[in-house]
Write a structure and sequence with these properties.
Number of strands: 11
Distance between the termini: 39 Å
Radius of gyration: 19 Å
Strand order of the largest sheet: 1-2-4-3-7-11-8-9
Helix content: 25-40%
Shape: globular
Strand content: 15-25%
Structural class: alpha/beta
């Protein structure tokens, strides 16, 4: 039985346009929640990609620019994303979509979403009590796709490139191993010290791809990535707000203001030189995880920054707390809350 969807009908004193906007945004949030709640048997990389093809591609001016699957990822140099998902039954894949709402503009904003459809931790397997909610590790990608839908259906005058990496971090004969050294798409080598620090590997190759390799119409000049990346951000901020790391004050302010308006709050977090130093490798350029737990959200963001061009405006939203909190609240039932969809749509509405 399909989930019920509530649509608001205009009444006296209610602006019809506002009602239409509200229904569009509500539908996007509802779809994000429903996708998030899919367990690994239904919400795997293949089925999520099929859902995007059926419900997003070709709608409201959204075009598919790339779909790279399985071994084609390594042929394209996307080795880290491929490594994370190669041990699973369903092949890993990366999809790039484009929406041109401002064709006269010269540039675009990239949205990048982590879509780990289930994360058992890989060979560094998660213990009991830490794995049961890992079907929600795809919420970054789910938020990105549904925010893109909302922006396109609203016809907002912005250009967006949306990239999602859909993988399952599973244990199998071909799973990637701790101590493996991978060459990333931008050429830097990364030693895998923890297979459960997989999200940053997926994101890093996508960040490089949208900057250097994507066959898109408009040059990407800003990137916003969303990921349920670290437990450390939950330890720091709790489950009501996400952490934001940004290298541009205007981007930071715009996203924080959007979060405040829609009650999806963000809190600014630092990337210091000490965090960058801790991510340097001994036999490689970088390591994907350090042994100490302190400052884990900051070191993860420092790792990602290694894959962002020096002139690129960038914001990283670590949404592990509010995107994976399944407790029933006033604005959401038990299950995936769909955090980030309203925030992104509101940001683009107010550019």
């Amino acid at each position: 039985e399909s989930p019920a969807t509530l649509y608001l009908q205009p009444s006296d004193g209610v602006d019809a346009k506002a009602n239409q906007v509200g229904n569009i945004i509500a539908k996007c949030v509802t779809d994000a929640r429903n996708l998030g709640n899919l367990r690994h048997d239904e919400g795997n990389p293949h089925s999520i990609a099929d859902w995007i093809e059926a419900n997003v591609v070709g709608k409201h001016g959204i075009h598919k620019k790339h779909l790279i699957v399985g071994d084609a990822l390594t042929k394209a140099g996307i080795n880290m994303l491929h490594a994370v998902g190669k041990g699973a039954t369903h092949a890993p894949r990366m999809m790039v979509l484009e929406y041109l709402g401002a064709p006269e503009a010269k540039d675009s904003i990239a949205l990048v979403g982590k879509g780990v459809t289930f994360d058992c931790g890989g060979l560094n397997v998660k213990p009991f009590g830490s794995m049961e909610m890992m079907h929600l590790d795809k919420m970054g990608a789910v938020a990105v796709i549904n925010a893109l839908r909302g922006v396109a259906e609203l016809g907002l005058p912005v250009n967006i490139v949306a990239t999602v990496g859909l993988v399952e971090n599973a244990i199998g004969p071909t799973s990637y191993h701790p101590s493996t050294i991978l060459r990333s798409l931008n050429g830097k080598t990364v030693e895998v010290t923890n297979t459960d620090a997989e999200g940053r590997l997926v994101l890093a190759d996508m960040l490089t791809f949208v900057q250097q390799s994507a066959n898109v119409t408009k040059k990407v000049t800003s990137i916003i990535d969303l990921a349920t990346l670290t437990g450390a951000i939950v330890a720091a901020l709790g489950d009501s707000r996400a952490g934001i790391f940004a290298n541009n004050s205007m981007l930071l302010k715009g996203l924080m203001n959007a979060g405040s308006r829609v009650d999806e709050p963000l809190w600014p977090m630092p990337i210091g030189q000490e965090h960058r130093e801790q991510m340097k490798g001994k036999l490689s350029d970088l390591t994907n995880c350090r042994t100490k737990r302190e400052g884990g959200a900051c070191t993860a963001a420092a790792f990602l920054q290694e894959f962002v061009g020096k002139d690129m405006k960038w914001a990283h939203l670590d949404i592990a707390g509010p995107a994976m909190e399944e407790t029933e609240k006033a604005v959401s039932l038990t299950g995936a809350p769909g955090f980030g969809v309203q925030l992104l749509i509101d940001y683009f509405r107010n550019l």
